[in-house]
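Q: I have 561 residues here and want to know how they pack in 3D. Can you give me a structure?
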Amino acid sequence: MYNDIERFISFTERDEFDEDQKLESSLYPDSEKGYSLLELCCYHGAVDCFKFLRTKFSSEITQLCLEFSFLGGNQEIMSECLKYQTPEEECMKYAIISHNIDFVAFLMNEYNIEIDLFSCGWYRNLESFLVCFDQTNDVNKCFINSGMFNIPSLCEYFLSNGANINEKDNDGQTALHYTAYNGNIETAELLISYGIKINEKDNEGRTALHFAAYNNRKEIAELLISHGININAKDINGETALHTTAYENRKETAEILISHGIKINEKDNEGRTTLHTTAYENRKETAEILISHGININAKDINGETALHTTAYENRKETAEILISHGIKINEKDNEGRTTLHTTAYENRKETAEILISHGININEKGKTGKTALHIAAYNNSTETAELLISFGANINEKDNEGETALHIAADYNSKATAELLISYGANINEKDNEGRTALHIAILYYRKEIAELLISHGININEKDINGETALHIATQLNSKATAELLISHGANINEKDNEGRTALHIAILYYRKEIAELLISHGININEKDINGETALHIATQLNSKATAELLISHGANI
């Protein structure tokens, strides 16, 4: 942004210009929503463009506008923003980043906002750091953060003025944690020579070695190890420094840790090794290093999942290929009997599924509940993966332990797109589960009207009965689902069909006090005097239930009294 007002005005005069547009870019601080044009003006200090947006479009001054104004450094913009927003801690952070001591002092003096020592260290603003010390005279707090500047004499100054070398901040971190995070080896050596507790943990259970691993500070890692730090120390999640290297693909530090004897197969609280972490984060280089040093490639976590299962969650196909190429058991099952293919089906990870299939995974393998990957795809409406599975020979009519096919599952979970796909590939539309129910029974049972319409349009037997002799119309009546009852009747459902007790839908309507459904059935000509196996008509049932309203309804329509 060059505050080029003429070009900016020309830009806003385009037909496609959107005054409310948001920009998302890695050039700016992380944002889920992106940044407005006015916020970007504040970020860049583009005062003329800022004024134009305010005048022409009445663009809103947000809290972020104020925060960015301290970074952009234009005092006119800042003054305008201060009329609408009140400075908070984030403003101080941006003032520190700008290295403008006047802004820092303004926030401290006018709004009583503390100088953030961590930001001072991270953004190397020594001047603001010293101002904070001058104002607070907090030797211990300043000492903890002083290591971030890599000025050993600064640390020594605080120590000579009574700083506790093992002092911790609110997060439980010592000066050594900060020094390790920033990779300041001279300061680390100084702290160790003064006797700092090298194995001290912060509130998350992390030692300085975890911090060195996270930021790939391999020289610091070597130093800490040479001075006897516990290389296998775990944080509160049960993770060692080796686990930490995997998050950011810190392969160099991983190699150092392994060369110094860290337990390569150590598991965290969830039973996951570092290989699981590399799989989840797709850190294939670190994965290769771990495998080359003998990590157990088939290790399972507490859910019985291997690293290969883990690749499926985020579609980490590259790492999946590495694991397979090194001989991981491709058909290994978790505690529920599910293979990685089941996971890809649930997450709709088509690319990873293709890799698994191409390497010979059993496409029809069942979990403990008898479900194949195709059942799982239907459950989550993972149409792309479902089509892939079918194209590679998945048994489209395979049943689970309940006797349900993928089509039953699609009907149950309202997965219309997958249901259409299954039917188009020849799924047996009239297949029954262990209760004798077709997908239509299931669709009606769970109020899936669109699925029911789809099934009917493809010729499902609308009068099919389950093991109780109930048709879909019996179920719709019991559930008081007038819309689906009308749908079934309009498509030719036999209105007088009886269940195993000899009851028609009208008997059911009266039994469950479904007056509107009863009226609907009568209006479509149901036999009002039909008897069940006990010789009872709907009127008998209404009388037994003392249901005056339904009895009157039946009598008014000619029920034999």
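Q: Anything worth noting?
A: The longest helix spans residues 47-57. The CA atoms of residues 350 and 385 lie 5 Å apart.
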